[in-house]
Specification:
The chain is of the alpha/beta class. It is built from 14 helices and 10 strands. The chain has one domain: TIM Barrel. A hairpin with a 5-residue loop joins strand 9 and strand 10. It starts with a helix and ends with a strand.
Length: 358
């Protein structure tokens, strides 16, 4: 791997072939060292986190993806659809924390809700709590809103921004940016091209977005690399992605879980490291503690990650799929996790503006 190491240390861009070789490399310590070297040079020793609250408006969903344990049909046990008052109550409970800075709003593709139903709830939240930032919805949801409303993606985004207070777009829904994979695991929702198009249009409007990759199910290693390349190419064009989140597949209570096992810590750490090395034009790589567990996320901060996500208040989507992490963390706990590895905690908003450096 000497030639790849020389490229990394000189700042030369890695190729598809390099990416495949990295995924087939068994020297995890070397991968971690290379990724952490790049992280330190690009980001320094600050680790970002946010004091946030997840608001999942509904789990009733037309998509019913094979990797998802959150989605329900109307008649399923546990199906729900929040009213405006119920959504406001979630935020009212979370805002008891005086440091709460913002909200992460994502949900299912409800079969009878209109775009206005979603917009009215977000608008009510924004009008009631105007100081909270709103990072909301994924490229999949925004594509869905455009289709059910007859509006263009651009028009949907402008309404969410101007009326609903949307400041950034969540990174979910990318899964694997391969039509082969998506036809198998999520054929009823946005295509790879549609997801990328939402991001491109949002960037053109000055709305920052995040990106993710759901790995460890039916995708090939080559498809993981291609996913990273597609994100890198769009970032070259628009410079609008601000964070990348590798999501390990959690199999419990999912259709895919009947045949696919959960990823190993080894795979999780190498994927974090390779993401840092391949995505040379992304500043931030997230070690999402909810999916990785807190101990693995802490180790991942030494494998190229510089963001550990947030307090969350109460996470449900991934815990339906068997996440064994807590449903929330206190800010003090997050600060302790970061300081234990000798790094500097910094609380940020959804656009990585530092609110408090500790």
């Amino acid at each position: 791997m000497k030639d790849i190491e020389e490229k990394i240390l000189s700042g030369e861009r890695l190729t598809r072939e390099d990416g495949l070789r990295l995924f087939n490399c068994n020297n995890l310590a070397w991968l971690g060292n290379m990724a952490d070297t790049v992280r330190k040079k690009k980001c320094g020793d600050v680790v970002y986190y946010n004091v946030n609250c997840h608001v999942n408006l509904t789990n009733i969903c037309t998509s019913r993806c094979k990797f998802c344990a959150f989605g329900r049909d109307f008649e399923n046990q546990g199906a729900y659809a929040m009213t405006k008052a119920e959504a406001l109550a979630v935020v009212a409970d979370a805002i008891k924390n005086p440091n709460l800075a913002g909200l992460h709003i994502v949900s299912g593709l409800h079969p009878t809700w209109t775009f206005e139903n979603y917009l009215e709830i977000v608008k009510a939240i924004h009008e009631t709590y105007p100081t909270l930032y709103i990072k909301g919805f994924t490229g999949v949801e925004i594509t869905h809103f455009a289709k059910i409303s007859g509006l263009s993606v651009k028009e949907v985004l402008i309404k969410l921004r101007d009326e609903g207070g949307l400041q950034a777009i969540a990174g979910g829904g990318a899964e694997i940016l391969s039509d082969r994979v998506r036809q198998i695991i999520c054929p009823k929702k946005a295509t790879a091209a549609e997801w990328l198009e939402v991001a491109k249009i949002a960037h053109g409007l000055g709305i920052k977005t995040n990106a993710s990759m759901l790995y460890g199910h039916i995708e090939t290693l080559a498809e993981r690399v291609e996913h990273l390349i597609k994100l890198r190419e769009l970032q070259d064009e628009t410079h609008g992605f601000q964070n990348f989140i590798p999501f390990p597949f959690l199999p419990k209570n999912t259709e895919l879980g009947k045949t696919v096992k959960q990823t190993s810590m080894w795979d999780d750490l190498r994927t974090i490291a390779i993401s840092r090395l391949m995505l040379d034009n992304f500043d931030n790589i997230k070690a999402y503690w909810v999916m990785l567990t807190v101990p693995v996320a802490q180790v991942a901060l030494g494998f190229g990650a510089n963001d550990i996500d947030g307090t969350i208040h109460k996470e449900t989507i991934l815990h339906d799929a068997g996440a064994t992490s807590p449903t929330a963390l206190s800010e003090d706990n997050i600060i302790k996790i970061i300081r234990e590895i000798g790094r500097i905690p910094a609380a940020v908003d959804c656009n990585f503006n530092i609110l408090r450096r500790l």
